[in-house]
């Protein structure tokens, strides 16, 4: 599945994304830019304001991530803790679906964990099986690993457009709708077909636009 969008040169990477890219440059396992900044990476420009920066890592590499982010305040969210937990992540194995809020700070942990409280890094824990990326184990939705992450025009490993929009389709908020409208015209027919088939398994209002 080819990636049709082409972007600005890597030296145009916005400063917040460049900081995270530098942080992850010495991470010894695979990672990818995801979320709203990844949409912008494919489009080659910042299209909206962002509350945080999202990256994706694989579940089997979470210990390496914990060690790599020594000195960071990390709060992990999975099905074993309540969503409003403020308990620091101690490296315990996380069960998907899971994600980690992080910030580099010596300050005490805030009562609320959101971008306004300074947690500007959101790490998504993903999974693979053999040569496939598992987008949804429940619905058996997969994508070949070679088609889930590619280098965007910003010179960073980035989740590819159909996978980005699949994640954003799960519980779409206003900014997810904005990202969908911005990125949809740049999907190839093959990418649109994969995304249409993937979200048809759960039912979604975006199906009508993908069928045009």
Structure description:
With 212 residues, the chain is of the alpha+beta class. It is 29% helix and 21% strand. It has one domain (10-160): Beta Polymerase, domain 2 (2-Layer Sandwich). The protein has helices at 15-24, 35-43, 62-68, 161-169, 174-183, 189-200, 206-210; strands spanning 31-34, 53-58, 73-77, 98-103, 121-129, 132-136, 141-144, 149-151, 157-159. The strands form two sheets. Strands 1, 2, 3, 4, 5, 6 and 7 form a seven-stranded mixed beta sheet that branches. It has a two-stranded antiparallel ribbon with strand order 8-9. The protein is globular, with a radius of gyration of 17 Å. The two termini are 20 Å apart.
Summarize the structure.
Helix content is 29%, strand content 21%. By secondary structure, the chain is α+β, with helices and mostly antiparallel strands.
Q: What is this structure's SSE topology?
A:
Elements: H1 15-24, E1 31-34, H2 35-43, E2 53-58, H3 62-68, E3 73-77, E4 98-103, E5 121-129, E6 132-136, E7 141-144, E8 149-151, E9 157-159, H4 161-169, H5 174-183, H6 189-200, H7 206-210
Parallel strand pairs: 2-5
Antiparallel strand pairs: 1-2, 3-4, 4-5, 5-6, 6-7, 8-9
Helix pairs in contact: 2-4, 2-5, 4-5, 4-6
Helix content: 25-40%
Structural class: alpha+beta
Number of domains: 1
Care to count the β-strands? 9
CATH arch. level architecture:
2-Layer Sandwich
Sheet with the most strands? 7 strands, mixed
Report the radius of gyration as a whole number of Å: 17 Å
End-to-end separation: 20 Å
* CATH C-level class: Alpha Beta
CATH-assigned fold name:
Beta Polymerase, domain 2
Number of helical elements: 7
- What is the percentage of strand-forming residues? 15-25%
